[in-house]
Amino acid sequence: MKEKNWHDKSYKILLLIPIIIILFSLIYITITYQQTGDLFKKDISLTGGTSITIYDQISANSIKLDLSEKLQNLNAREIYDFGTEEQKALIIETTSDWEISKNVLEEYLGYALVEGENSDIEFTGSILSQSFYNQLLIAILVAFLFMAIVVFIIFRNFVPSMAVILSAFADILMTLAVVDLFGLKMSTAGIVAFLMLIGYSVDTDILLTIRVLKRDEDPLNTRLLGALKTGLTMTLTSFFAILAALFIVQSFSVVLTQIFTILVIGLFFDMLNTWITNVSILKWYVEHKENKK
């Protein structure tokens, strides 16, 4: 009998790592939901409110300290030029009405805010934002459902298909828990990032499953190692490319910063769930199947 290597002896124990993280994620998201009534914190694009961009060099911290009692759920952030690192604008978000917000800011700054010249003002109603939020959630559910159907059609085998789906679900769940843990306010861009994450999550899982199930002429560990080399190369290439882009855009684009942040977190968990969760389930399944022969 061939001597077992460390992975043959330990892969079932390694499966405890994602199980523990999944349980923690479920508990933390449940606590967040009980406290806030939502799975995550939402910004004004999902709750409704006012966004005012002022093209001036103003401290975000000063705005928060001085106006937090006058404007509801106030948030402010500075926008910088990437090349010169010079502040170009200040973005202020609040759930207060746009007229109230404009008047408060004009009184504080000491000059009029003229849209198209020294400022831009956007207002989204709460009903429209809630409707858009519900549609995005439905889009995620539909995308996940179709992904699951395609996976079942490709493999036509319950256990390997469920391993792929479980890994993709775990990626989303763990990423959402980290978003909640960091207190990030989700925007429409953030939900779109979760849609993108579904695609990123299943590609290496499908690659792994095809290598393990279809190329049965090679030993199991050889198939797993070959899939690992190819899959990790794919994921790490995307991971570091998005990480580099995140460092570049964080000073001037809030939308891209949130998208790339969620993708970086998701790709990290994708590596864990593909090469621990999915590998362990597949190896368990194949060994059990071979032992029955």
How many individual β-strands? 6
Apparent shape: elongated
Low-confidence stretches: none
Give the termini separation: 16 Å
Order of helices and strands: HHEHEHEEHEHHEHHH
Helix content: 55-70%
Fold blueprint:
Layout: H1 6-14, H2 16-36, E1 41-42, H3 44-47, E2 49-54, H4 60-67, E3 75-80, E4 87-94, H5 98-109, E5 119-124, H6 126-155, H7 158-182, E6 185-186, H8 188-214, H9 220-249, H10 254-291
Parallel strand pairs: 1-6
Antiparallel strand pairs: 2-4, 2-5, 3-4
Helix pairs in contact: 2-7, 6-7, 6-8, 7-8, 7-10, 8-9, 8-10, 9-10
Offer a quick outline of the entry:
The protein has 293 residues and is of the alpha+beta class. Helix content is 70%, strand content 10%. The strands form two sheets. The chain has a four-stranded antiparallel sheet. Strands 1-6 form a two-stranded parallel sheet.
Can you give keywords for this protein?
single chain, 293 residues, alpha+beta, Multidrug efflux transporter AcrB transmembrane fold, Alpha-Beta Plaits, 2 domains, four-stranded antiparallel beta sheet, 70% helix
Descriptive notes:
There is one protein chain. With 293 residues, the chain is α+β, with helices and mostly antiparallel strands. The protein has two domains: 6-42 and 127-291, Up-down Bundle (Multidrug efflux transporter AcrB transmembrane fold), CATH 1.20.1640.10; 49-123, Alpha-Beta Plaits (2-Layer Sandwich), CATH 3.30.70. Helix content is 70%, strand content 10%. It has ten helices and six strands. It has helices at residues 6-14, 16-36, 44-47, 60-67, 98-109, 126-155, 158-182, 188-214, 220-249, 254-291; strands spanning 41-42, 49-54, 75-80, 87-94, 119-124, 185-186. The strands form two sheets. The chain has a four-stranded antiparallel beta sheet with strand order 3-4-2-5. The protein has a two-stranded parallel ribbon with strand order 1-6. Strand 3 (75-80) and strand 4 (87-94) form a beta hairpin. Helix 7 packs antiparallel against helix 8, helix 7 runs antiparallel to helix 10 (254-291) and helix 8 (188-214) packs parallel to helix 10. The two termini are 16 Å apart.
